[in-house]
Amino acid sequence: MLFDALTEPSDAIAVRVGDETLTYREMRDAAAAVADHVAGAERVGVWADVSAHTVVGVVGALLAGVPAVPLNPKAGERELEHILGDSAPQLILAAPDADVPADLPRHDVDLRAAGGDVPPEPGADRAALVVYTSGTTGPPKGSRMPRRAIATNLDALAGAWAWTADDVVVHALPLFHVHGLVLGMLGPLRRGGGGHHVGRFSPEAIAAALDAGGTMLFAVPTMHRRLADAAESDPEIARALSGARLIVSGSAALPAVEHARIERLTGQQVVERYGMTETLMNTAVHADGDRRPGSVGPPLPGVDLRLVHEGEDAGGIGEIQVRGPNLFLGYLNRPDATAEAMTPDGWFRTGDLAMRDPDGYIRIVGRRGTDLIKSGGFKIGAGEIENALLEHPSVAEAAVAGEPDEDLGERIAAWVVVAPGAGKPEPQELADHVARLLTPHKRPRVVRYVEELPRNAMGKVQKKLLTR
């Protein structure tokens, strides 16, 4: 079963979201009641606000074998209309006080419901979730995630991170995305441990949760940076972070300077992993592995990974392609998009560019189209230039992309956020800094200063908004 701990539940804490707590017994009862209500539906929406009701709604749908569609409560009118029209949920599960704008049948999740028995486990290839992509290249697409992907991927991560029922995962991630929902909430339930969502992110809330028994911290780079900022001035936050068994960063690359700062402040070396909505996690640095900045570790057990450039295996930079039980079932109602994403022999084209170290560790260098820059006959990954810029003391954030250039084909352009309290460096100073750390042909030819970089809900920089 996906959640063995719900078959003979205990009174141990299963889920804590803000001030709401549910034991495994209460989770079983509430989720079983949801399962009974939605049984037989083709799909159900879950209004995925930060609440225990969201977790119960998703788990209840999973118990019933009904695909759940997590709905971003901050989605705009057009995006929400598209997702509801595409997924056609028969009802929406929500917290009683949730302001759900959809004109659809609704069921309020009762955290204290008295449910019946857990239904029999559905087939492993049955769709469990329909998670919508961020829509950076068009309207969001519904990725149909099978039960086998969730089960095998969480088990592979458990092996990599020595993740057991004794662990309590602390995070403040959105519950409409696979990072916060699958890893952060369903992961602890599969292990039989605890999931503690602090509600609204703050360094103080994260520190308090770790002090209250949290053993693992999942966060995105923006959160890690703010945690490090807070730890610089508050020894208690640094102490709480130092007590975690494992600190994990994902959804975007954590700059080397932040790796070093967190280690200096807390003694912790952050573990990175790499995944996508369509694949869940593909690689991960192991708890007992080499935690080197810039690397997302080796492929997880069961995941085949290759690097391809122009249809051939790449010795240098190549597109990551993966296959294995972690793959999605395809995009809902989009056989054309599914066919475009898959190779004829069953590999998923991620669109991410990477290099492979001699020991098998993968280093992400950018996205195909925006992060592979062809300048002066060289193929250059934007990610390594960004990391180099971030090592300059005056740079707080940086994004790099290619721009058309009559002479070079593409020139390297950088968008830079100046660090608080630092003076604005001359563009040539930053170009020389990159040339010294990397090679001269990788220096930015254009530097633009901005107040902030445009990011999506998971903290990923939206470079197309910069290059328009």
From TrEMBL:
<feature type="domain" description="AMP-dependent synthetase/ligase">
    <location>
        <begin position="7"/>
        <end position="332"/>
    </location>
</feature>
<dbReference type="InterPro" id="IPR000873">
    <property type="entry name" value="AMP-dep_synth/lig_dom"/>
</dbReference>
<dbReference type="InterPro" id="IPR042099">
    <property type="entry name" value="ANL_N_sf"/>
</dbReference>
<protein>
    <submittedName>
        <fullName>Long-chain-fatty-acid--CoA ligase</fullName>
        <ecNumber>6.2.1.3</ecNumber>
    </submittedName>
</protein>
<dbReference type="GO" id="GO:0004467">
    <property type="term" value="F:long-chain fatty acid-CoA ligase activity"/>
</dbReference>
<feature type="domain" description="AMP-binding enzyme C-terminal">
    <location>
        <begin position="384"/>
        <end position="460"/>
    </location>
</feature>
<dbReference type="InterPro" id="IPR020845">
    <property type="entry name" value="AMP-binding_CS"/>
</dbReference>
<comment type="similarity">
    <text>Belongs to the ATP-dependent AMP-binding enzyme family.</text>
</comment>
<dbReference type="InterPro" id="IPR045851">
    <property type="entry name" value="AMP-bd_C_sf"/>
</dbReference>
<dbReference type="GO" id="GO:0031956">
    <property type="term" value="F:medium-chain fatty acid-CoA ligase activity"/>
</dbReference>
<keyword id="KW-0436">Ligase</keyword>
<dbReference type="InterPro" id="IPR025110">
    <property type="entry name" value="AMP-bd_C"/>
</dbReference>
<dbReference type="Pfam" id="PF13193">
    <property type="entry name" value="AMP-binding_C"/>
</dbReference>
<dbReference type="Pfam" id="PF00501">
    <property type="entry name" value="AMP-binding"/>
</dbReference>
